[in-house]
Amino acid sequence: MSVSAEQLAQDLRGIVGEDYVFADVFERMVYADTELPYDVEEGDLPDVVVQPADAQEISKILKYANEKKVPVTTYGSGTSLIFGTKVKHRGISLSTERLDYLRIDEDHQWFECGAGVKNGRLIKELGKLGYFLPIQTQAGSSFGGSVSVNTLGHLTDNVFARPVNNILGLEVVLPTGEIIETGSRCLRRAAGWDLAHIFIGAEGVLGVITKVRMILYPMPETADAVAFFKTTEEIGHAIALMYKNKLPLPMDGEFVGEKACKVGYEAFGLDFPEGAMAITRSMGRTKEEALRDASELVEFFKSVGATESFVLEDAEVKEKVWAVRENAMHWGEEKGLKGFQAIEVNPTLPQLPEAIAELKNITQGRKGLIGQTEAYLYGHVGSDSLHCLFVFPYDWSTEKMKQVVDEIWNLEKELQLKYDGVGGDWGWLPHRVPLFREKYGEVSYEIIKKMKRLFDPNNILNRGNIEGEV
Amino acid sequence: MKEEHVEENVEKELHDALVSCEKCHFCNLVCPIVDSRVTQGPFGINRAIYYGLKWNQFNDTLRDLVYSCTTCNKCVAMCKKVSRGLPLVEVFEKARELLLVEKAKGPMPEQAGVLKNMHVRGNPWGNPPHERTKWAEGLDVKFASQDNKVDILYFVGCASSYDAQGQKIAKNLAKIFKRAEVNFGILENETCSGHEARRMGEIDLFEYLSEANIGMFEEAGVCDIVTGDPHGFYSFSQEYPRMGNELRVRHYSQFLNDLMDEGKLKLSSKVNKKVTYHDPCYLGRHSEVFEEPRKLIQRIPGVTLVEMENSRADSDCCGMGGGRMWMEPPKGLVSSQAIAEKRVQQALATGAEIVLTACPFCNITLNDAVKSLEKEDSITVMDITELISMSL
């Protein structure tokens, strides 16, 4: 970096104005903090936080950063679970939060919005007009971040397509500062080359997505169902069969393992059958359609061993059932454990029960710090996505926390390789780079690196993510 | 930056409360002071306090963030729902106490004189104490005392005692009590409830004022208090030292419903108005009084009540709580006027002619917002008591 932090802040003020450059330690610290269980250290802080208003200002910042060789890390909402927004080489934290423009165009049947719009706001605004956002991540995450990771959150891949299939066009600022537009304003997407596809899922290393145009989905009617099984493995069997037997797939298929259910039932004073719980959300054009599909799933669950299953028609019971699932962040507190780290495993369908069985007992007899953690199983089994939340004391030292996180990530890699999984919900960069390299090999990894060099010759944008630095 | 061992009790308390933040950012989603920067909301404030303690750094940026919270409690409800239920507002108030008492960093510069006024003159504006009961002149309102026993002590509160708009609430309430033949009185030397002093981190002043009020309650022999000030209501019912089981505190929305249930208060004149109701934070979310004000409104003949997009536990803040009535947030932080204007926009979207509230602070703030939006022709802000007195 050929410029001092003070000069950097001063120069950026010249681009975005006095009010949108932040150099105070508390501002920089908040932008450096991540969902990692250990604390931010001084070296993790950016030199400056900048909030540009539009693509033109971002273009100027990136041109300046190339000239001065200053690393730029993009920040949408800081909720990345693979830590793509974590600053690795100081420099500039470039926040897209001011890109909050939203236009819902019912005539064209698409909506267009800035990358900084939060998914919670989109869900609400689209909902008011009777439309549905086919991305169900946590509501605080930014739309630009979700698109750059190409995630649809909890939703079932075989019901809703990934963002890459629903996006009509993008505005992108390249790392070298050029602004490009991709895609169409008509509903017909391009066959053949569509440059949008290069940036969606590139996890922000090839450019800064500043504007997204996505098709409108009418709000579906929904009906929820619950099924109680003696073991979580039985849920795995049932889901694999659900696909094979061509049942109406739910848009959302959640599950909570035995241990987490026990905690949840006790917390909410629920008298539900012992064991594990599956929750489904079926959709239809009409309520009747949704209810018909939910009822079909209930009958199916009963036929494959559910001790009890029913459509969630009573609002109070429905709230309690979902509360058990949503209570995930309290798991471990009953044992006084508040530090946590989650993993994701996406087994192939036939391996679903086996993977569940292994995860259920993952800490038992295991050496290292993982053996000292408690693990809780949950996730989006309908979309073939299993999570395991490891909890441990929050007063462990930073070193110990870092060690346990390393162990947990290595374990995630082993399991993903064993069960043929991918970065299903959260993406790859940076912490899953080792998994990517082992799964797809060095030639594939080299392709990504070459693309990065082509787009970003000075490695200015999100430096360290492709390199796998966390 | 040097890592410090957190040894002090308050600091340890804050550290232990914040260390388990899951960093999901859900709290920011519902916070009225978040505009476009993650630092602005409860997530940013909580992280700033956490690292301020860890790195032993207490500067003006930290102070500005900590004092920017309106204490509306929406983040606490959200955290309880989706995460670990951090008592964020309590933590922020504790941090204000730490900044004010230990670090000589609080309160906000404009609030220092306000706290002094509360101490010396018993009200935040520094108005003469002898003018506190001036609003009651000519209304034949008793001063409660051992010699002048009352069934109900009406605790007026500072805003309804001194502010012209707030005084309307006191006058209307006195009129309603008289119509229902309630044997009520006020304190001759009523002083500030201290609620806002506590919000600003001045815990000693809060204790001093609470003791003064409790002393006067005891001296007058009152055990049944009714107030129109949700801030005082919250402090009396949840923060004042316990006075045995004898003290009963009600907001007027509860008391007037009781009077109507007992047949002591009847509303006869029709008020053909479409109204909406703004839940004050300290009456709604903090004290969970959501239904009584609505029931009261619906008892007024001719009134049609419509709800705003965010209501009851999900209601938005007016922007003036938590000591913000007496400060203008520094550049880069959301102004109270902007928060109030957003709320008025929600009220306008309902098509209501009147936005009702049950708090003098909200009344003042929303009124100002209607004026700044130049919407005086479209909507009027009123306290529920005003509409009731129209229907007597």
Topology:
The complex is a heterodimer of chains A (470) and B (392).
Chain A: H1 5-16, E1 21-22, H2 25-32, E2 48-50, H3 55-68, E3 72-75, E4 92-95, E5 102-105, E6 110-114, H4 119-128, E7 131-132, H5 143-149, H6 163-166, E8 167-173, E9 179-181, H7 196-199, E10 208-215, E11 217-218, E12 221-229, H8 232-244, E13 252-256, H9 258-268, E14 276-284, H10 287-303, E15 308-311, H11 315-326, E16 339-345, H12 352-360, E17 374-380, E18 385-392, H13 398-419, H14 433-455
Parallel strand pairs in A: 2-4, 3-4
Antiparallel strand pairs in A: 1-2, 5-6, 6-10, 7-11, 8-9, 8-10, 12-14, 12-15, 13-14, 13-17, 16-18, 17-18
Helix pairs in contact in A: 8-12, 9-11, 13-14
Chain B: H1 9-18, H2 26-30, H3 42-55, H4 60-66, H5 74-82, H6 88-102, H7 109-121, E1 142-143, E2 152-155, H8 158-162, H9 164-179, E3 184-186, H10 195-199, H11 203-220, E4 224-227, H12 230-239, E5 248-251, H13 252-261, E6 274-277, H14 291-298, E7 304-306, H15 336-349, E8 354-357, H16 360-372, E9 380-383, H17 384-391
Parallel strand pairs in B: 1-3, 2-3, 2-4, 4-5, 6-7, 6-8, 8-9
